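Follow-up to my post from last week.
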Amino acid sequence: MTTALDDTANQPAPGGAARQAAAGLPRLLPQAPEDLQAHLSRYGTVPYRGQRARAGAGRGEGSGRREGRGPGRERSGTLIADVEAAGLTGRGGAAFPVHRKLAAVANARASRKAVVANGAESEPASRKDELLLRIAPHLVLDGLQLAAEAVGATEAHLYLHAAPGPQLLRALAERSSRRLDLLPVTITEAPPRFLAGQETALVNRLGGRPARPAFQPPRVSERGLGGAPTLVQNAETLAHLALIARYGPRWFRAVGTETEPGSMLTTVYRPGRRTEIHEVPTGVPLRALLPADAQAWLVGGYHGVWLPLPDAAGLTLDHASLREFGAAPGAGVLAALPPDRCGLAEAARITGYLAAESAGQCGPCLNGLPRIAAALAELAGRGHQRQTRADLERWSGLVTGRGACHHPDGTVRFVGSALTTFAAEIDRHARGRCSATNRDPFLPLPDHRPNSEQDWI
Amino acid sequence: MNLTVNPIACTGHGVCAELLPELIATDEWGYPVIDPRPVPVALERDARRAVAACPALALRLTMSKEPARSAPRS
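User reply:
Got it. Predicted complex:
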């Protein structure tokens, strides 16, 4: 892996360009921010299919219709059919099949429908959507408009962590002056909360309410924003969709594994390196991205899983491989904890954050997570009580599956993997020792510690 | 039929567990832990009473895919 293009502090940079180019990657990340002219000359114009309001159940015209058949193109059907054939899954973390959400909204009978590009995924360690929206905003915006057309949407939204940057504002203005968009895009800022990017929290925020998760059902694809069927897709997912619309499913499947095709953006944390964003084929060996000389690897972010080394050193970045360890690619956060750090201390610090980020709505999460975090902090200290481990296991069982959202489950998964992966370290701490020689925190947490109702707005 | 709770609406009042201890226990913080299996036919009446008695309107009986077993469970 080489390349760090952008030396601005704290801004992630695309990495590994030379190596990936051989595999037809990167697909999503240009080497420098692209304006509309550069975007259009690289990818061609936005391939609207004139299938507005008739997506899904076709009127016959759709499925065999011939699009332009330039190099790399295929005969294409409806965009939804192409996305299904491509096997695209959501890149925000849940890996839900994209065509199913598209079809659900397309087939819903409603006079109002909404599409939302979610650029505020919750993982604080994930920086890929932020980078994508900065250097390739037009791909995401193409995807948003194409998805809007495919489902027959009447409004389009962009949900962001922070105020839109200059690149994004310029991109929207360029599109507007060229009349490239079918729908105007409304931007809404998410509050800086871990759960604010969760689908129902997003719908609440766009509806003017605090960005807390809601209790499903119904799914937002049936009844979302203001009651309208709503399609929510991660920003990266929409960028992939914009390319599938142009080049077709076979092109998309040319990289990645057979069952989980395509490429994905990863945010990679390695000892002594700054944060890098790599676009990789699914199924790439983890050791191509992470050094084996580490305390452990973390895959999938703060709802993800600690992987022990060397046991996990042969795994690849796909569900089929990671499942063995109860892990998943998630939103592509990958970290190698440096050898001089204490995994327990790191896990306890993050768990404290996760507990504080409970929306406080569901009893088991509100009561359980702070206790779990305190118990893990005790294990990360010296000479813990014998009872602590048993308490931790009991509370973990009590919160799992009992929240309106996945927060308790994800937190417990993270904690459980820390207990397994750092088992030897727990024993060491019980005897009053710790293997760490460096106590600096490694993984990033937001500076902002919310504590009031205003923090959800 | 299946019993489900809306965990956001639930305030841990505990009425449901008192009325239907066969299917609902409470955790150490007073929130209901519900047997996920279909409600046995013999307990449907009690389940309806528990749903009606919930002060937070958080408990629901929903149609389930699997048919209920008529024999009570242990």
